[in-house]
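name: query_chain
kind: protein
chains: 1
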Amino acid sequence: MTPSRQTWILTAVAVVAFFGLRSLPDTQCAFLHAAHEPVIAGGVQFCGVNEEANFYSPKALKFPVKLELAFSDGGKGGSLRLIGDEGRPILPYEVGISHTQKVHLHLRQVTGRKGYIHVHPTPSDDGTWHFTLPKWFTDGNPGGDFQAYVDFVTVRAGRVLLAEATASLEVRSLPTQPLPSRNQVKAVTISSTQSGQSALVRVTLSAPAGAAPLKLQPLMASLGHAVLFGDAKTQTGYAHMHPSLEGGEYDADPTLSFRLRLPSPGRYDLWLNISDGAEDYLLVPIEVTP
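structure:
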């Protein structure tokens, strides 16, 4: 093969890959990143009209990035690297800002006890990103196996990239029951539970009995975030969602609404991440039907 022909083929492959990645849906709101038109209300960002999130398996989609993650000795935190298709770590200056942060790391604990935490690693110049687990998460945690998912935006392409990995956490403390959520799930309505359909998931929240009404505060520019996980063995992947402005967000018992294209049938864990002045996590089981 002549050098010119080889160069032409490599260029064609790069162009196809570039436009292929640009056509992939945004994970959080819109089908196409370029078409994402958020609704801004009171300085808070909501997903636009008729925008919906999707459930993805990063490995199945074969994004050109590999996640390497390990917990630190003692289980107080850890580090990760994002290895690009050139075989080198993606450096901090190559990562853009998405919802006030560069890298969103979702850690789902699947053995030992059920749990989820959303953290934002801080970068080093060599492309290593470090994260700390909050004390409330590690205290009494028996450790176990984790699924790790990251989503971030590259400066060059302006597209969301996803990657996943597994890791084991060892915590040297006596196991105890996890701290309960401060707030409560009062009601859940889903417009459809059928796989493949577009669904509006509305979750009404309330403060504990006797406490002042729950007032949601912005968290990463939104009134909350939600992540949907499937079976840890048979349905790896996740959907990272932001609320749509559907009404009820500022009621005494606020309601958050999420639009989602429902994945394949099965049982799923929907984790809500909200703030009432401090972060709180609430679990909502969801079943998708055939």
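note: Confidence is low (pLDDT under 50) at residues 6-27, 31-35.
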